[in-house]
Amino acid sequence: MHRDTAKSASPPLQPTAERFNWHARARVFNACGKEQKRAKSTSGTSADGRLRDISDQTPAAALCAVYEAIAREQEFCLTSGVCADAPVLPTANGDAHFQCMSSGTSGAPRRVRRSQKSWIESFEINAALWQISATDSYAVLGQLSHSLALYGAAEALHLGADLHLLSGARPDRQMRALAAGSVNILYATPTQIRLLDEAAPEGTVPSLRLLLIGGAKLDPATRALAQALFPNTAIHEFYGASETSFITIAGADTPEGSVGCAYPGVEISILGADGQTLPVGETGEIWVRSPYLFSGYAMGDTTGDTRWDAGWLTVGEFGWRDRSGALYLSGRRGRMVTIADQNAFPEEVETCLLTLEGVARAAVLPESDTRRGHVFVACVQLDGQTCDTERLMARCRALLGPLKAPRRIELVADWPVLSSGKTDLAALSDLLSGARA
User: Which CATH number fits domain 336-436: 3.30.300.30, 1.10.357.10, 3.30.390.30, 1.10.533.10?
Assistant: First the structure.
């Protein structure tokens, strides 16, 4: 398989540890601003070979259990409920491993197994990129069973910063906690930003200097909300997955519609169906190679979308690059459908809808059609304004062409989301099926 790759110019720094560390200067606070107890040291206790499942219902207690497991050299998994037992699989190099849960956007959440070192590598990169030190104060909004929140929490403690665990608190209380704790680094999803704005549209957090967005594409409207909520922040959006961690990073100078260029240490290749590298501007499957990739699924299962090849990994995402190396996403293989004998991605239509005035959220689903094979139907939540769905469809036709434009738009007031904050596509599909019945 031939590859020409785009690689960040900055090589990864050497990691300073093989295991996560709860730095002596790091402190943990809950949503009320109360400092939580540190994890007790159990160093010297040998591993017992068992996997430790840890419930994240009480975040501070979950963190203590995580760091106790690390000290005992136990593999652990943070979960939000009861999960099927998973074996502790041996690793060739003996690296310390842990498990986190995938988002479940395209199916049931899965146990993703990775080395602690694979995250520590990027902790050090981020510290250098954004001058992070023990004087900083982090916050995470989501449950620790979600990899974005767990990543932010582990990074803060490893680097010695303060950490505010705000999961479970109402968005208005989260806003107050961010301001009261003088938080200056925040990990969040676009959905979490919208919830903060809905709860406290007039509130701001001037102390925030760095907002790191993951979990979904940051649309222009949500970016504007984030900039209003955090007027002094630099917003960086990263593209990746539970299996890959960082792939690209985007900032203020990133071209509109792009998810940015390769994160330091990441190589990206765009391949066609024949496994050959595609020219600039052509859409193909995205393959990556980096120090941050996962080790495999904990249950030993595989999926047609996630595939390895000689150290390279794809999660079935398609996209293309421009001449500067900026990456643009088209959509997932698992969501791709054929419309009039042409491949089409619902994500492309969703991105288009989110640029239109009055649209707060959008999701696009395929519907069978006797003439074309499929057509797209869009579910849309409005931002409070009245909106003409015929106008929205006309704009989509003008921007995307008649083939990809949705044939129907359904307005959804109560938007279904997964526990990760991502759109629950299965619930929307059920809603559409009920509407057709």
Answer: 3.30.300.30
